[in-house]
Design goal:
Strand order of the largest sheet: 5-9-8-6-10
Shape: globular
Distance between the termini: 35 Å
Number of strands: 10
Radius of gyration: 21 Å
Structural class: alpha/beta
Length: about 375
């Protein structure tokens, strides 16, 4: 068994902590290797229809793929205590922070208050992949990096490629004490869960569908605090809530060769600063964040969200986590919920985003200001 964990193991990690990572991942991987999978048929003449369930419904498209419901390794990585142990080893005061954003509207109040200015030197060092605005708040040097825009399409480069490249350059040029991926995200709201069956496994979704189809959106919102034994352990969030990421997953990097390939495709990385005190003191909701490049949520992605307890979805966190976990840079993801997640109804998601944009922008600006004030004089292990 290989001991290559794909997790950041910087020099400051004690040998005992490093071994704990290896032991945990190997133990979980061994458990997963006991699961056998029947080979998929490659006979193009095989036209046999999937068996119908007892209630007459056919299985969802994800039913042929056994992996979404067997996420032992992924859950083990999300819940791995090694990052908390690593976190406790870092007793230096925070002096330099990078905030990565796609749009900077939420950052404008902070930038104007503390007279940030474009940092041409750092922008050049980042190869103009992002525009760097730098300023000092209290004792902390802050660099806000907004992804560049396409000169052809006049749109910002959201998504995996740009954010991953910037994260790598940040690690080698700025070397901050902490990187924050900041912005808005879709969230698992009461409506997502009750009306659209998101956060519910496929079997439960089939059983609940007929009842939910007859409910109004208002009725569903009234069920926000209700729980069902068929739902995942994820809680609901509301528009305006702020999610602090625990880990980041790729929801559209699908690999189906075997279980190991599937897990590799799904795993982005940990938010490797636990920040329990930050969450408690500022009222943030901790949860797993999924990343994908489309607004559309397929049936398979809905199954992944349910089984991995994903609470919010954006377009950048997973690639940033993947890079920063390798370079050993402290990373947290902070996302303000701007809309619900609705499988098969991306238009409703976009409509909600635009309706809530001003309110969410105001909440995000306040959250960012409160976080920067909170970081003053604190050490990494005090977050």
């Amino acid at each position: 068994m290989s001991t290559d964990t794909d997790l950041p193991l910087p020099n400051l990690m004690e040998d005992s902590v490093k071994q704990a990572v290896i032991d945990t991942v190997n133990e979980t991987t061994n458990a997963n290797e006991d699961i056998t999978h029947e080979p998929q048929s490659t006979d193009t003449n095989d036209t046999k229809e999937p068996e119908e369930a007892a209630n007459g419904h056919k299985p969802s498209e994800s039913a042929d793929l056994p992996y979404p419901s067997r996420m032992t390794l992924i859950r083990g990585l999300i819940n791995n205590d090694v990052f908390k142990q690593l976190h406790q080893l870092q007793n230096h005061v925070i002096k330099k922070i990078v905030i990565m954003v796609v749009v900077d509207a939420e950052c404008k109040p902070l930038m104007e208050k503390y007279k940030f200015s474009v940092d041409q030197e750092l922008t050049e060092k980042l190869l103009h992949l992002g525009i760097v605005s730098s300023g000092k708040v209290g004792d902390i040097d802050i660099h806000i990096i907004k992804v560049a825009e396409s000169k052809v399409f006049r749109r910002h480069y959201s998504g995996y490629t740009q954010s991953a490249a910037i994260a790598a350059l940040v690690s080698s040029t700025i070397k901050p004490d902490l990187v924050i991926s900041f912005g808005t995200a879709g969230g698992l709201t009461a409506l997502s869960r009750s009306k659209y069956n998101l956060g519910v496994t496929s079997t439960a979704a089939i059983n609940n569908k007929d009842n939910n189809d007859n409910k109004s959106d208002k009725d569903v919102e009234n069920e926000k605090n209700s729980t069902s034994p068929s739902t995942s352990s994820s809680s609901c969030v509301s528009v305006g809530d702020v999610v602090l990421g625990e880990a980041c997953l790729f929801l559209d990097r699908l690999r189906t060769k075997d279980k190991n390939a599937f897990d590799w495709g799904l795993w982005g990385g940990n938010c490797n600063v636990s920040a329990d005190a930050l969450a408690k003191d500022l009222g943030l909701v901790k949860g797993v964040i999924g990343s994908q490049v489309s607004y559309q949520i397929t049936k398979l992605q809905a199954e992944l969200i349910a089984n991995a307890d994903v609470l919010a979805c954006d377009m950048e966190c997973a690639p940033i986590a993947q890079i920063l976990n390798q370079t050993g840079i402290n990373f947290i993801a902070v996302k303000v919920i701007s809309n619900g997640l609705y499988p098969g109804d991306s238009e409703k998601m976009e409509d909600e985003y635009h309706v809530n944009r001003d309110m969410v922008s105001e909440k995000a600006a306040k959250t960012l200001h409160d976080m920067i004030e909170y970081f003053q004089g604190k050490k990494i292990n005090e977050l």
